[in-house]
Amino acid sequence: MKTSFLLVLLIAGLPVLSMAQNAENGKKLFVRDGCYECHGYAGQGTIAGARLAPPVLSAEGIGKYIRRPAGAMPAFSEKVVSDQDVADIYAYLKTIPAPKPVKDIPLLNQIGN
């Protein structure tokens, strides 16, 4: 179900966010616009919002979702979050490294033993 939804977002004829991206500004916007409140400061996700980093969606997919989200997330019009802001937020999310695999975290490997 989740995969199908992501594919729909990617195929939906989205405008390309091909503008320059500024990760430093994106980090500021992520906090200013309140994204962190549901998605966590590092985009790690919480009970209230999905994990965003590292991004699974393209910049276009994230932009489309911000404009017309599903679930409890409020929509953000271009007047509130411009396309440039979306591009910058996406650039910030791309700077966040993926978490280590469970097998590489000794304490988590000890729990099952």
Question: Can you describe what's shown?
Answer:
The chain is mostly helical and 113 residues long. The chain contains 6 helices and no strands. The chain starts with a helix and ends with a helix. Residues 1-16 have low confidence and may be disordered.
> Which percent bin holds the helix content?
40-55%
Biggest β-sheet description = none
Number of helices: 6
Distance between the termini: 33 Å
**Derived structural class:** mainly alpha
**Structural shape:** elongated
Low-confidence stretches: 1-16
Total of domains: 1
What percentage of the residues does DSSP assign to strands (E)? under 5%
CATH class: Mainly Alpha
Order of helices and strands: HHHHHH
* DSSP, total strands: 0
State mean pLDDT (0 to 100 scale): 85
